[in-house]
C-alpha cells in the first residue's frame, strides 16, 4: 500500500533521529535600533519632499548646477536593489535621486545621499562601495553626499583612502555636519528654506534631550516660526510631522504644548487643526 513516507533507509532505522530543535525567534530590536530606523524613515520622507531645499541649504554649489525646472526623481526601489545586491541589506536613509544638469555636456546626474546618525569607522568605505555599485548598475558617474546627524564633534569622514606601495585608492565626497549649524542659529531662524526647520528641530532635540520643559518651549517656538512662513498646508503638515518626531515630550508636557498651539492658531485666526 503506497504511503507518503520517502523510500529512505535512514527513515527505516530502529533508532529514529532526534527531533530538530525549535528555531529561536529572531532577536527583538533594541530601543536604540528602533530609534535609528525611525530616524532613517523620517529623513527618507523629508528628503523626498524637500530635496531641492536640502541641496540649497547644504550643498549650494551643486544646487546651482541642477536644472530644477525639469524636476527630480527619487529612485528608492533602485537604491534598495543596489544595496541588497551588494550585501548591505536595506539602508532606509540612503537616498538616490535622478536630476538633470544645466550643463549640456552632461544632462543626467545621479545623486547618492547618505544620512549618518552615529559614529562608524567604516562609513567612508561604505559610501565608496555604494558609489561604485550605483555607477556599475547605471553606467554613469554618481555624486555621493554625506549628512552627519550624530553628536560627536570629532566624527567627520570626508573620504576613503587605501594605499600600499605604489597602489593607491582614493575617493572623496562632500560632508555636512549638523553640529556646525549651531553657531548659525540666527541665520537658520531668518531662513525661508523649510529644511532649516528640520535642522533646528534636530539640534534642539539633541541639546535639550534631558531638559523637557525647555524643550517644550523650543518646540512651540519652532511651530510659531513654521506658521509664520507662507508654506502650503501640505508642506506645513509634512514639516510638522518631522518636528513632532524629532522633539518628543512626556505626555503632560505634550498636552500643554498642544494647548499652546491651539491658542496660538486661534489668536492668528487660522483654521483650527489637529496637530
List keywords for this structure.
globular, two-stranded antiparallel ribbon, 47% helix, 275 residues, alpha/beta, disordered N terminus
Give a structural overview.
It is globular and about 65 Å long. The strands form 2 sheets. The chain has a 5-stranded mixed β-sheet, with helices on both faces. It has a two-stranded antiparallel sheet with strand order 5-6. The longest helix has 28 residues, at 31-58. With 275 residues, the chain is α/β, with parallel strands linked by helices. Helices cover 47% and strands 15% of the residues.
Short summary:
By secondary structure, the protein is an alpha/beta fold.
Weakly predicted, low-confidence segments? 1-27
Order of helices and strands: HHEHEEHEEEEHHHHH
The secondary-structure class comes to alpha/beta
Strand content: 5-15%
Mean pLDDT: 83
Helical content class: 40-55%
- Please give the radius of gyration in angstroms: 25 Å
Query: Can you count the beta strands?
Result: 7
Terminus-to-terminus distance: 71 Å
Number of helices: 9
Strand order of the largest sheet: 1-2-3-4-7
Largest sheet: 5 strands, mixed
- Net shape: globular
Amino acid at each position: 500500500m503506497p504511503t507518503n513516507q520517502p523510500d529512505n533507509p535512514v527513515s527505516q532505522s530502529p533508532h529514529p533521529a532526534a527531533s530538530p530543535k525549535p528555531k529561536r525567534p529572531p532577536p527583538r530590536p533594541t530601543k536604540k535600533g528602533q530609534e535609528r530606523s525611525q530616524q532613517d524613515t523620517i529623513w527618507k520622507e523629508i528628503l523626498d519632499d524637500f530635496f531641492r531645499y536640502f541641496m540649497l541649504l547644504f550643498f549650494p554649489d551643486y544646487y546651482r548646477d541642477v536644472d530644477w525646472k525639469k524636476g527630480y526623481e527619487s529612485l528608492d526601489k533602485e537604491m534598495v536593489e543596489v544595496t541588497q545586491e551588494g550585501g548591505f541589506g536595506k539602508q532606509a536613509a540612503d537616498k538616490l535621486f535622478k536630476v538633470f544638469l544645466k550643463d549640456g555636456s552632461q544632462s543626467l546626474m545621479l545623486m547618492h545621499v547618505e544620512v549618518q546618525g552615529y559614529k562608524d569607522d567604516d562609513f567612508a568605505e561604505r559610501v565608496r562601495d555604494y558609489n561604485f555599485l550605483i555607477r556599475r548598475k547605471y553606467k554613469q558617474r554618481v555624486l555621493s553626499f554625506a549628512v552627519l546627524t550624530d553628536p560627536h564633534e570629532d566624527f567627520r569622514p570626508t573620504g576613503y583612502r587605501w594605499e600600499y606601495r605604489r597602489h593607491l585608492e582614493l575617493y572623496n565626497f562632500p560632508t555636512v555636519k549638523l553640529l556646525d549649524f549651531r553657531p548659525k542659529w540666527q541665520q537658520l531662524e531668518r531662513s525661508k528654506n523649510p529644511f532649516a526647520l528640520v535642522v533646528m528641530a534636530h539640534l534642539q532635540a539633541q541639546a535639550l534631550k534631558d531638559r523637557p520643559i525647555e524643550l517644550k518651549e523650543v518646540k512651540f517656538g519652532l511651530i510659531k516660526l513654521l506658521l509664520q512662513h507662507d508654506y502650503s498646508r501640505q508642506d506645513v503638515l509634512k514639516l510638522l510631522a518631522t518636528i513632532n518626531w524629532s522633539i518628543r515630550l512626556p505626555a503632560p508636557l505634550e498636552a500643554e504644548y498642544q494647548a499652546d498651539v491651539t491658542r496660538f492658531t486661534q489668536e492668528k485666526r487660522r483654521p483650527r487643526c489637529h496637530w
